[in-house]
């Protein structure tokens, strides 16, 4: 039994990373090779897993980011974006909240703090609501119904809060060992 995952410097799909490393004339060859022999689609794999996970995103990653060192191009963002949307369809169910999700994930540390403070001022209330839902639904199953009756503002508050429950930023390049 796997009780939890820690995913370090992970990506959503290996294809964009492989194509970035190869000359453009080989694009179709790379795509066919990846899809037939090395199809590492971590979004689909993580959707099959119902347990807890942490995604450690290296903020200066030169391998997993399409533009080295640019956190907004880190492929782990796409993994988190898709998995949270899958797990919590009632939270991430409108364009405004999805835009907020992407904005928060791709923001600098300072911008994330400002957004978190704006939306998650009463963090203990958010923790309580999350805990109550888990007590009512002790066996995790995704997609879940959490947030089914929430207002837009409540969904946006939880959109930010849930990201921080899954995402851990580590200020380092790709190969630095974790502490």
SSE topology string? EHHHEHHHHHE
Q: Distance between the terminal alpha carbons, to the nearest Å?
A: 26 Å
Largest sheet: 3 strands, parallel
Oligomer: single chain
Number of strands: 3
**Inertia-based shape:** globular
Total count of domains: 1
Strand order of the largest sheet: 1-2-3
Give a structural overview.
With 179 residues, the chain is mainly α. It has one domain. It is 50% helix and 8% strand. It has 8 helices and 3 strands; from the N terminus they run E-H-H-H-E-H-H-H-H-H-E. Strands 1-2-3 form a 3-stranded parallel beta sheet. Helix 1 packs antiparallel against helix 2 and helix 5 packs parallel to helix 8 (152-166). The radius of gyration is 17 Å and the shape is globular.
Notable features of this structure?
mainly alpha; 50% helix; 8 helices; 179 residues; three-stranded parallel beta sheet
Secondary structure blueprint with pairings:
Blueprint: E1 5-8, H1 14-21, H2 27-37, H3 42-47, E2 53-58, H4 75-87, H5 95-106, H6 109-119, H7 123-136, H8 152-166, E3 167-170
Quick recap:
It contains eight helices and three strands.
